[in-house]
Amino acid sequence: MSTPISLVPGPSLRNEADYAFCPGCGHGPVLDALNEALVRLELAPHEVVIVSDIGCSGLSDQYFTTSAFHGLHGRSITYASGIKLARPELNVVVIMGDGGTGIGGAHLLAAARRNIGITVLVLNNFNFGMTGGQHSTTTPTGFVTSTTPGGNLERPLDICATVGVNGAAYAYRGTSFDGDLSERMAEGITTAGFAMLDVWDLCTAYFVRNNKFSRRKIDQTMEAIGLEPGVLYRRDRPEFAAEYRRLAEETDDTLRAQPVVPSAAASLGRRAHFVVAGSAGGRVRSTARLVAEAAMEGGWWSAQRDDYPITVKSGPSVSEVIISPEEIHYSGVGRPDVLVIVSEDGWGKAAPYLEAMTDEGTVFVAAGLPQPETAARVLIVDPAAASPPIARASRALAMVGHAVESTGIVPFDQFEKVAGRGAFGEKNLGLIAAGVELIES
Amino acid sequence: MRGALAAGCDFFAGYPITPASSILMMMLRYLPARGGIGIQGEDEIASIGMCIGAAMTGARAMTATSGPGISLYSENIGLAVMGEVPLVIVDVQRLGPSTGAATTTAQGDVQFVRWGTGGGFPIIALCPSTVGECYTLTMKAFDLAERFRCPVFVLADKEIALTMRTVDAGRFEEVPVRERSVVDPADTDPPAVYRYEPAGDVVPMQLYGGRHAVRFTGSTHDQRAYITKNPETVGALNEHLIRKISDHVDEIAVAEADLGEGATTLLVSYGVTAGSVRDTIAIARAGGAKVSALTIQSLWPVPEALIRSAAQGVERVVVAELNPGLYAREIERILSDLEVVSLARTDGRLIAPTELIELIK
């Protein structure tokens, strides 16, 4: 990976504003190095977006003539990612403090894993300077801050290793005193993928004062805690925004509506309610959907409302289907015309339906479940006793097939037509046929 | 989702959450082939952050979540307000508080989206009551986002998002979505990025990627987007942010009034509850009751004129909603001389027409 460095420097991208940083603060020299890097790369102001975080480093964008985005604390990487994804040709440089690596740690990880082509400069001075010198993720163990008066108990974050082992294309650790800082920044900016520069510097307002910290102590601390300086990771990996576009070109998955064209004239006299109560994972919803689709084929309106827990294949699953000759507004089912109780899970959800049903309704109950107390007609069928026995996951379809054939809530031939479609069509029809054969008692 | 695509949405970022995940999955599936970008963020904060960044390059951005996700969007909603970023935020409401019940419908975020970020500045929120309205109001949300350069909420709910229904897609109403008003990208010497005078006047956006540098900040700023605390400048900025919405309530207001001759009761609803009201009205009128209905599609800013007009001549107003009576307080405030009855459900059940009928006199 080489860095194209111009021998003919372009115009400065610094504006006339003086830095508002404290005397001796390291941020100014780091920003000077950034300007030098941008000049070396001959970038025009509109080709660069500086995304600044919050804190003293968050003032940084105001000293440049480039485009700038000053957002929320810890979230600078997210804005930068959005900008880069939408306009990959832009050079997007995030400037954040060590504080941002804590609150925005998830974004740091995600950006490295994606290898999105942004450059992140961490102006790392080991504490929150703007808010009163509190400790941060990078405060070395034992050091004093306003929130670690007895010395910091936490271990400092190894920023470079964190992004490095998680896929970053480039990671460099250095200090604001490094003579080659602007070259390293230029390297980072020209790296196609995610580039991190962890730049250690002095907070003269707090950290220097509280810890007798100095330029020499930066180097000593680095060594003492075993964090190496220099370019620590270089990795050639596809950049996310470019890779996304490459994959997008290979897809032609556009949204195509597949309208249902009614094949029969509506003949239903009134709104009817059909409810299947079974177990999650027992194909309750897909079975109910066949009833709804059969109704649509018949030119009726239908709605399917599912009630299930947040688990996927355990617990109860109840589907309510409304079929109506008119458009359906209220999608609740107070009183079913037909209720199918497939399993114990379903039984547990059936009480309000059973209570509401009248003698005009029909309940189909799997054998072995308690006898329902209801005004409706109750029919017991036993899918487990069929020959061959119908597996648990298939009982909803078999019982609903039986109920549809028995009650005609939707025409049985339409139901079979819908169920017979697709890869599972033949299997569906077999189960429905087995269901129809079940003996009512 | 279809409304968003029809409106030209070309950037989507979201994080999985029931009952909004189907929007995420559909957008990520269908955007690539249309030249758009769809991405699953590492969390909700990243998702809305990426949308804001992308919108600043000219993208028509949308994100979708449920109540818990809105909590995480909160700070960035303020950023979009402050930086005047067009953005559509879909909130598919579920029962709360907290994790609540992910697969249970509710309308508990009605006041939350209004006041969900610091500062109390105006917000636009549209609320579909049918699948067709999801389509139309999502398009309208994109249009309003461009018109006012601000985040616009589409406040859906689990019932509308996850209940499958027959729809007549041929009847979905298309609304025109205006192009983003932008400063010519080729312009190398553009005006200041913001303008506060006259207050409420929305100026063309300047986007990253053109021939000029563009500044953006979430801090109080002057018209060139440099941080300032100058009270005159900050006052003008905030007055502008308020008035660009509050001076244009009539332009945003959408409600469907079904007024009955000599009606004595007005049923007010929005979202999923409107379906119950529609059935109730049919049943009640068949029984000879004199009743009107108002379905509010633009919850924020409150369409006060439309509410007053629909309530003319009635004696009592029933507000039906699946929350502790959150919008009823707006109705009580506007119609303070009428009897306002709040029918509020928080148990996860829908409001049935049988319940509403009992409240019609």
3D architecture notes:
The complex is a heterodimer of chains A (441) and B (361). With 441 residues, chain A is α/β, with parallel strands linked by helices. Chain A folds into 2 domains: 220 residues, Rossmann fold (3-Layer(aba) Sandwich), CATH 3.40.50; 165 residues, Pyruvate-ferredoxin oxidoreductase, PFOR, domain III (Pyruvate-ferredoxin Oxidoreductase, domain 3). A 7-stranded mixed sheet of chain A has the order 2-1-3-4-8-7-9, sandwiched between helices. In chain A, strands 11-12-10-13-14-15 form a 6-stranded mixed sheet, sandwiched between helices. Chain A is elongated and about 90 Å long. The termini of chain A are far apart. The N terminus of chain A is likely disordered. With 361 residues, chain B is an alpha/beta fold. Chain B is 35% helix and 18% strand. Chain B is built from 13 helices and 14 strands. In chain B, strands 2-1-3-4-6-5-12 form a 7-stranded mixed sheet, with helices on both faces. In chain B, helix 3 packs parallel to helix 4. The two termini of chain B are 40 Å apart. Strand 2 of chain A pairs parallel with strand 8 of chain B, so a sheet runs across the interface.
Topology:
The complex is a heterodimer of chains A (441) and B (361).
Chain A: H1 27-40, E1 48-52, E2 67-70, H2 76-86, E3 91-97, H3 98-103, H4 105-114, E4 119-124, E5 127-128, E6 134-135, H5 159-165, E7 170-175, H6 181-190, E8 195-200, H7 207-211, H8 215-224, E9 230-234, H9 240-250, E10 272-279, H10 284-297, E11 301-307, E12 316-324, E13 338-341, H11 344-356, E14 362-366, E15 377-381, H12 392-407, H13 412-419, H14 425-437
Parallel strand pairs in A: 1-2, 1-3, 3-4, 4-8, 7-8, 10-13, 13-14, 14-15
Antiparallel strand pairs in A: 5-6, 7-9, 10-12, 11-12
Helix pairs in contact in A: 1-6, 10-12, 10-13, 12-14
Chain B: H1 2-6, E1 11-14, H2 21-30, E2 37-40, H3 44-55, E3 61-65, H4 67-83, E4 87-93, H5 110-115, E5 124-126, H6 131-148, E6 151-157, H7 158-162, E7 164-165, E8 215-217, H8 231-246, H9 249-252, E9 255-258, E10 265-269, H10 273-286, E11 291-296, E12 298-300, H11 304-310, E13 316-321, H12 328-334, E14 339-344, H13 353-357
Parallel strand pairs in B: 1-2, 1-3, 3-4, 4-6, 5-6, 10-11, 10-13, 13-14
Antiparallel strand pairs in B: 5-12, 9-11
Helix pairs in contact in B: 3-4
